[in-house]
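Please fill in the sequence for the structure shown.

STRUCTURE ENCODING:
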């Protein structure tokens, strides 16, 4: 395996240096060091970041080849200083030019390493730029390809139009997490717990969640903020049985003021967890949008990645949701799954088109450190992972054929092909919650194990997070602490906004 050592004599932008280098060498092994004394004797490539006064240097050493790039007058600045971002952009541009020149490669998203490229375009539009100007700025300043810059600008225009209908200044959104799944997929790194192992604790979990729902609802009534959207995710929310689903939805709807609610999503998710009884329960509450998520419509792939359902079950679950009365159904797909090539992706898209959902979210496979596919990588060495622009273009064409347009986007670490996740929807069927959480325009209050409440610090771009514990047993025993922590953090935040 290709070995890379990154020596960080200056650590100010260590995350950006590491992530950009890894984007060029996704299959390499990395050692990140902070002093020359730690240096290993063997590596194929050495990247060194260093600072001397106001001069910042990045060197590239491979075999007998040594290259050096320098940028002068880059003072060491604290977080929050506007000039610090300019410094970061200069350093990333230096590193990108160096790596691109030596590898003879470009990256579709240039030197961008964050998860929200459309947010940059949105900020440009909000500051008076046109979509064309935003596109050109992404290309010239960040080396983004023309195709991706056009995508980011298009999404930014659509997001701002949709957000103009939402009062983010006085509103908030609610996320409720159900961490149980029928089985754990090969690539999954979410806080998911096998239903088989935890079936006897589900009601205990709901009891704890009801306490957090009641406490948080009382808190939000005090803030006098309006609830704009609700999203129940997971895990797999429909791993609950119909009685438990009714219990959950009844607790939410009885405690929170829904008078201004614009959207209510339940991520039904796994087709093997969807029944007519559960769908009827969900439909009896003011739920406006659900997901039926196949990930792929190729049975051999479903079997390989640990999805314990069939293609037929996906089709039946979707049609059952239609018969129950749901008129806004999303379907999640993943491209880059092991063993899948262009014909496999085309087959999936053709079958999705026949079902005709209102929205489709296309994820590029990202294998996190905690996923089984990564932990036990030796067992899966023979697997092939194919994701390229041709495959991405197939998804774009399929969305267009279903009269869908892109409306939100985000990126993740370790994405195959260095691509992106894109949500497509027909006009009027977009998920506002997805946009709100990406654009960080209003507080997201998160309940349940692994929930992460987020709100922006006034006068800065910094986001404050209040984390719930991920472990289900810990959450059950410490739910009062989670609720109190949320109250303290939100009240402190409110005192700084008035």
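FILLED IN BY: designer on duty
SEQUENCE:
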């Amino acid at each position: 395996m290709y070995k890379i050592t990154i020596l960080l004599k200056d650590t100010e932008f260590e995350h950006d240096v590491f992530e950009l280098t890894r984007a060029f060498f996704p299959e390499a092994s990395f050692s990140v060091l902070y002093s020359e004394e730690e240096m290993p004797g063997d590596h194929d490539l050495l990247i060194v970041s260093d600072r001397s006064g106001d001069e910042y240097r990045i060197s590239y050493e491979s075999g007998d080849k040594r290259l050096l790039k320098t940028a002068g007058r880059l003072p060491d600045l604290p977080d929050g200083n506007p000039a610090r971002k300019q410094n970061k952009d200069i350093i990333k541009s230096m590193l990108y030019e160096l790596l691109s020149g030596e590898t003879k490669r470009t990256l579709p998203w240039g030197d961008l390493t964050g998860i929200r490229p459309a947010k940059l375009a949105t900020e440009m539009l909000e500051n008076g730029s046109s979509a064309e100007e935003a596109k050109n700025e992404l290309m010239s300043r960040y080396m983004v390809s023309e195709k991706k810059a056009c995508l980011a600008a298009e999404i930014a225009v659509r997001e701002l139009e949709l957000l103009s209908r939402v009062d983010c200044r006085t509103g908030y959104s609610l996320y409720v997490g159900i961490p149980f799944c029928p089985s754990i997929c090969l690539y999954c790194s979410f806080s998911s717990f096998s239903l088989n192992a935890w079936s006897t604790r589900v009601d205990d979990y709901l009891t704890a969640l009801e306490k957090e729902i009641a406490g948080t609802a009382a808190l939000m009534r005090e803030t006098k903020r309006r609830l704009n959207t609700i999203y129940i995710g997971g895990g797999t929310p429909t791993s609950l049985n119909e009685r438990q689903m009714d219990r959950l939805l009844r607790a939410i709807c009885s405690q929170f003021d829904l008078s201004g609610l614009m959207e209510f999503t339940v991520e039904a998710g796994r087709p093997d967890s969807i029944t007519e009884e559960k769908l009827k329960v969900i439909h009896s509450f003011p739920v406006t949008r659900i997901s039926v998520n196949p990930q792929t419509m190729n049975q051999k792939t479903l079997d390989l990645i640990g999805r314990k359902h069939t293609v037929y079950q996906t089709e039946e679950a979707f049609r059952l949701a239609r018969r129950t009365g749901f008129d806004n159904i999303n379907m999640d797909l993943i491209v880059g799954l092991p063993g899948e090539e262009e014909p496999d992706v085309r087959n999936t898209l053709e079958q999705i088109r026949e079902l005709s959902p209102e929205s489709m979210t296309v994820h590029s496979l990202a294998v996190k450190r905690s996923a089984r596919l990564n932990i036990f990588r030796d067992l899966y060495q023979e697997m092939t992972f194919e994701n390229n622009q041709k495959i991405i273009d197939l998804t774009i064409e399929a969305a267009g054929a279903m009269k869908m347009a892109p409306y939100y986007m985000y990126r993740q670490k370790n994405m195959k092909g260095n691509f992106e996740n894109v949500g497509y929807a027909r006009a009027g069927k977009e998920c506002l919650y997805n946009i709100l959480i990406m654009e960080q325009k209003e507080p997201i209050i998160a309940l349940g194990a692994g929930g992460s409440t987020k709100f922006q610090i006034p006068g800065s771009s910094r986001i404050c997070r209040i984390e719930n514990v991920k472990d289900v047993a810990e959450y059950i025993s410490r739910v009062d602490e989670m609720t109190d922590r949320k109250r303290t953090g939100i009240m402190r935040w409110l005192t700084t906004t008035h």
